[in-house]
Backbone:
């Protein structure tokens, strides 16, 4: 007599066997995009180990090395693979450190957007009535302005209130807050639409009958069923936040020149591009384009996967 032993698969095994991974393995563009994004993220995370020099260390920088060309051009130095900027900093090192700052700002800004948008969208959709009208009209007013205009206005307010020196000292935190404030309506409108559909379902009515309070119903019952659109929006919004940081830094409203981000590097190099030092802007700009492109491609793939009506993978 043989006995069969049944084992319950682990969470990891269930995830690896899920439709999500199945569709991911069948989509070469998604796999390539994820591989490139993972390489960028790991390079940024381990920048202190991978970068030839520390661009924050004044003792490692020599002004005599300024505007060195990449190694395959004349007037180059083997120490600087991609050349140097006007301050003598190694371009490769500043890109690695700058990409880390850009990703940190992008991810944290999206976290701020998500918190604001989810709370406001849940409240508007669940309570309805005057609360819904007030919150959504406020979101509509903000959406009537461009994201960059809102970011510039908020940045100017912070600069005037804190002063240029204090603002520069906390520039990363300020940019996270600025971009978060500028982009939350995208989350709020999407979550509100999902809540309007979910709150009519039987499980919400059952929770009300059982005497659960509104916050518990909103966050423990309704919100988990609205996570799919949140994940899709977050992926795209990370790319938008990185672009917003780059644009603000390029306009001189973002990070100071001594804190390299992809946007500030492009801004620094733009002043020298017509003098022949094109690499100062070109390489950070290329990295920014690739980073934003792969994140957007992943966002498009996630949108299709979570919408079976349009997914043909």
Residues:
């Amino acid at each position: 007599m043989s006995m069969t032993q049944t084992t319950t698969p682990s969470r990891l095994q269930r995830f690896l066997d899920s439709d999500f991974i199945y569709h991911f393995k069948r989509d070469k563009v998604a796999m390539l995009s994820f591989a490139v994004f993972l390489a960028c993220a790991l390079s940024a995370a381990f920048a202190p180990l991978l970068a030839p020099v520390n661009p924050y260390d004044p003792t490692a920088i020599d002004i005599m090395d300024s505007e060195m060309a990449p190694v395959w051009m004349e007037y180059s130095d083997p120490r600087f693979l991609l050349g140097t900027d006007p301050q003598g900093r190694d371009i490769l090192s500043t890109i690695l450190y700058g990409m880390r700052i850009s990703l940190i700002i992008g991810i944290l800004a999206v976290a701020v957007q998500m918190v604001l948008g989810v709370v406001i969208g849940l409240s508007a959709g669940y309570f309805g009535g005057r609360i819904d009208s007030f919150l959504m009209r406020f979101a509509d007013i903000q959406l009537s302005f461009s994201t960059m205009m809102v970011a510039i206005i908020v940045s100017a307010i912070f600069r005037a209130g804190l002063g240029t020196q204090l603002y520069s000292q906390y520039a990363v935190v300020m940019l996270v807050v600025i971009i978060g404030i500028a982009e939350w309506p995208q989350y709020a409108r999407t979550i509100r639409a999902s809540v309007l559909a979910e709150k009519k379902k039987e499980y919400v009515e059952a929770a009300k009958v059982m005497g659960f309070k509104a916050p518990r119903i909103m966050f423990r019952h309704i919100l988990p069923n609205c996570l799919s659109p949140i994940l899709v929006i977050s992926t795209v919004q990370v790319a938008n936040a990185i672009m917003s940081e780059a644009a603000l830094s390029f306009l001189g409203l973002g990070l100071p020149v001594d804190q390299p981000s992809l946007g500030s590097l492009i801004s620094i190099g733009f002043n020298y591009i017509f003098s022949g030092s094109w690499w100062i802007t070109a390489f950070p700009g290329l990295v920014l384009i690739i980073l934003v492109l792969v994140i957007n491609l992943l966002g498009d793939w996630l949108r299709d996967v979570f919408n079976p009506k349009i997914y043909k993978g």
